[in-house]
Amino acid sequence: MTLETGFERVSLPLADPFTISRGTTETTENVVVRVRGGDGTGGVGAAAPSAYYGETADTVAAVLPDLLAVVEEVGDPNARQRIERELRAVVERNPAARCAVDIALADLAAKRLAVPCYRQWGLDPDAAPPTSFTVGMAEPDEMRTKAESAVDHGFGVLKVKLDGDRVGERIAAVRAGAPDARLRVDANGAWTPQAAVAHSETLADHGVEFLEQPVPADDLAGLRFVRERGALPVAADESVTTAATVPRVADAVDVVVAKPMKCGSLRETRRVAAVAHACGCEAMLGCMVASNAAIAASCHLAPLFDYADLDGSLLLERDTFEGIPIENGRFDLASVERGTGAVAFE
Questions:
Q1: Which of 324, 274, 331 is nearest to 308 (CA)?
Q2: What tens digit of pLDDT does each residue of 190-249 get?
Q3: What's residue 293's pLDDT?
Q4: Rounded-to-5 percentages of helix, strand, coil across the chain
Q5: What is the mean pLDDT of residues 147-158?
Q6: What is 236-274 written as a DSSP string?
Q7: Under a CB-based contact definition with an 8 Å cutoff, are residues 248 and 81 in contact?
Q8: CB contact at 8 A, 336 and 106
Q9: Residue 135 and residue 150 in contact, taking contact as beta carbons nearer than 8 Å
Q10: Contact 225/250 with Cβ under 8 angstroms?
């Protein structure tokens, strides 16, 4: 079997500046990977690298030739266990780069069987939870307007980005704009444990469901402190990368966040969910700000998770790929005929 591979960098502007506690993003760079078989069927994936995890578009582009050489040597998109093992042997780090390759292979393998990925994996599309829509940090009035807009567009779950400044004012503004929405808050590790406990009381007063990554990633004792003394359940995102890192945080949090771009493959993302559930935690499927070439594949994994935060492509001003249709916060997986459902705009 013969496989041809290639990749290209794409710069994707965001619809609005996106601010979290670590800074503001106006444009994201993705690297699109393509794998094509001798029959002309093609698969597509994308890397959405994060400098927080030590990756950039430059590092992804630097390692992809070696990763794609493995794919061409193996020559079989169904041999993903072997390819995943060999990709890690070639490039131990750079999980977003490896994940882009894995997504393209998954897309191609399902297309060859003429089935959507969720069906190939035996998953129930009706079990996928609705995605949240993220309200980035801004002036309180602007956050209220964004919350109102998200609700008007059918999103019943909002994730609110906060740092330590005007926490009460900002969450009150979002709640005023979305009085009936389910709210979650993500501090991206910005708070001390003591501050997080204090803020959790304020957030609980506004009906927030849980608090994501309140303290820095390596402060596991701090996570445990917030969980034991705070007013809200706690989720770990930056503190978790692969399945092997789940047990060390499981007794300190209630929810574990898996993201394919930090896991390195769709298979490893599934393993994170399985280990989280085995450890008595719930699991949330998250994403980076990314093209539908990456996000669509994640949507097919959503039935394995309790929560979903898959709005990465919805934050873009424009994308080079069309994704899975969404209505009232739910991706219509059943509408995908084959593969991931990501289709390049012509």
A1: 331
A2: 999 999 999 999 999 999 999 999 999 999 999 999 999 999 999 999 999 999 999 999
A3: 98
A4: 40, 25, 35
A5: 98
A6: ESTT--SGGGHHHHTTT-SEEEE-HHHHSSHHHHHHHHH
A7: no
A8: no
A9: yes
A10: no
For residue 149, the model assigns a pLDDT of 98
Looking at residue 189, its pLDDT comes to 98
Contact 16, 136 (CB under 8 A): yes
Q: What is the DSSP letter of 130?
A: P
Alpha carbon distance 135, 68 (integer Å): 37
What is residue 158's three-state secondary structure? Answer: strand
Helix or strand holding residue 32 (H, E) = strand 23-37
- Tens digit of pLDDT for each residue in 83-123? 999 999 999 899 999 999 999 999 999 999 999 999 999 99
Q: Name the nearest CA neighbour of 171 among 127, 196, 202.
A: 202
Report d(CA 182, CA 208) in Å as an integer: 7
193-205 and 220-229 helices cross at what angle (nearest 10)?
Answer: 40
Strand partners, 160: 135, 185
Residue 144: per-residue pLDDT: 98
Backbone phi and psi for residue 164, each to the nearest 5 degrees, phi listed first: -90, 5
Give residues with Cβ within 8 angstroms of 340, minimum separation 6: 44, 103, 106, 107, 110, 116, 117, 296, 297, 299, 300
Tokens 């991931």 appear where? 340
323 vs 306: CA distance, rounded Å: 22
Q: pLDDT category, 15, cuts 50, 70, 90?
A: very high
Distance CA 24, CA 154 (A): 26
Rounded-to-integer distance, Cα 170 and Cα 319, Å? 30
pLDDT for res 142: 98
Amino acid at 155: F
For residues 106 and 340, the answer to whether their CB atoms sit within 8 Å is yes
Report how far residue 157's alpha carbon sits from residue 143's, in angstroms, rounded to the nearest whole number: 15
Mean local confidence (pLDDT), 69-81: 97
